[in-house]
Amino acid sequence: MTFGKKFREDKFLFPKDATPINHGSYGAVPKRVYETYKKWLHKDFQFPDEFMHFFQAQEMEKSLKVVSKLVNTDYKNLAFVPNATSGVNVVFRSFPFHKGDTIVVSSVIYDACGNTIDFAARRNGVNLKIVDITFPMSEKTVLSRFEATFKQVLETKKTGSQVVCIYDAICSMPGCRMPFERITELCRRYGIVSCIDGAHSIGMIPIDIQAIGCDFYTSNLHKWLYLPRGCAILYVTPKFHDAIMPFPISHSYKDQEFYKRFLFTASNNYSSFYCIPEALKFVNEDCGGFDKIRSYCRKQGNGIIAHFGTDHLVSVTEPSADDLNFMVTVKVDLPKDKQEFFARSFKNKQFENEVRDFVLSDLLRKSRTFVQFGWHNNFLFVRFSCQIYTDLQEYFWGYDQFLKELDRFYASDLFQKWNNRSACTSRCCKL
Asked: For residue 45, what are the contacts with CB-CB under 8 A and spacing of at least 6?
């Protein structure tokens, strides 16, 4: 097979005028997986009573067994959840916190999960400790900051209190691989409960839960495993099986087996989960396996690095062919005045929402593409998601379209509004 744009036209559902370079946000569904999805929908909708009685739980369990082999754990340690954010919610809304416990979280946590942690901390009277992570940053520095925070927390920890740490496998924004395996080792060394937000991990990188040795792990399957949205897994170590409950609490609340509590949580449609065997067939039969997928995406990532230069690449470690993940984050060169403007304005969430809508709406309407961008460590960045259905030149073209939209933004009334506001605020702060 030959990956790239032609592969996209043959195997995926994208319209011909689209240039999809943002796989990391929502994933993409191959045609053969979509056809399987439709068959399961039809089977369910055709006769719900029959389907729920004879197929629903059985197919869910079958798919759990398939995933368990992929991540190397007993399927009874796994549960299906709609997405990784839901997985984090299940853990932190169920965990037996007590007043005085501590949650350790990195500063680059996904916003939705950060809100979940804030809710859990406030609700339970739990202390919150932030590990400051700013990219680019060496793996050694990342680990030393986590370890220093652990030591600080444990020095003041009351006898009997618990410490839970949540961290990413691969950060969303900017898209950087974290040394999550070694952070987990630190958690075990210091007696800290470990929770990995692996939203972007399964499919992108090999995952061996038994080897990692974490307490909790959650990952989307709709991103890098080519499944329809609404499909993710949650791993819970046996020690916490009794504590972790589905959301919502439903008929299976009192089931003694952990995984069975999640097989039916409400009257939902679970067709995405039934497609897991078909998605793996796509990976193996149409793509030649994960190694070939990763090799192609790694080659694309290296091509992006060669084009923009390592000075423009944001990562946890020095970029190399061996450790590069599928998401590549590139700094945007800005004139000094625009740099200062964004540095002031991005502190306001309303500005972030308005500028993103302004730029991305036009990108979608006119250029038929979507370029993820954000602000981190005093620089503007774009995030590319390398995939088997794109050609390398499409990322460069998308970047050029993004720059054109930035120029349009600079000439807009929206820019003038925020420039005047931020300039005024800046002057007022100096008075």
From this structure: none
Q: Let me know whether 415 and 395 are in one domain.
A: yes
Q: Please say whether the dihedral angle defined by the alpha carbons of residues 208, 213, 214 and 216, taken in this order, is positive or negative.
A: positive
Question: Of all residues in the chain, what percent carry a pLDDT higher than 70?
Answer: 95
DSSP 50: H
What is the domain extent for residue 331? 289-430
Element (H, E) at 162: none
Are both 270 and 390 inside the same structural domain?
no
Residue that finishes a domain, picked among 278, 313, 330: 278
**Cα atoms in the Cβ-side hemisphere of radius 13 Å centred on 296:** 20
Domain boundary among 222, 254, 278: 278
Q: Give the whole-angstrom CA distance, residue 251 versus residue 162.
A: 30
- What pLDDT, on a 0 to 100 scale, did the predictor assign at position 359? 95
Using 50, 70 and 90 to split pLDDT, how confident is the model at 426?
low
18 is a domain residue: no
Residue 364 counted as domain residue: yes
> Can you give the pLDDT at residue 372?
95
Do 244 and 132 fall into the same domain? yes
For 31-49, what is each residue's pLDDT tens digit? 999 999 999 999 999 999 9
Q: How far is CA 367 from the centre of its chain?
A: 25
Within a 10 A sphere around the Cβ of 255, how many other Cβ atoms? 14
Report the side by side order of strands in the sheet with 78-81. 78-81, 232-236, 216-220, 193-197, 163-168, 102-106, 127-131
Output the domain CATH number for residue 238: 3.40.640.10
What CATH number does the domain containing 382 carry? Answer: 3.90.1150
Q: What is the pLDDT of residues 71-98, one digit of tens each?
A: 999 999 999 999 999 999 999 999 999 9
What is the arrangement of strands in the sheet containing 313-314, beginning at the earlier edge strand? 313-314, 327-331, 379-385, 372-376
List the one residue out of 237, 247, 260, 221 whose CA is nearest residue 92.
247
CA distances from 238 to 76, 110, 214, 233 (A): 9, 26, 11, 15
CA distance 208 to 343: 40
End-to-end CA distance of the chain: 65
Give the pTM: 0.92
Return the structure tokens found at 8: 């996209």
- CB 178, CB 316: distance < 8 Å: yes
Number of domains comprising the chain: 2
Other beta carbons within 10 Å of 319: 18
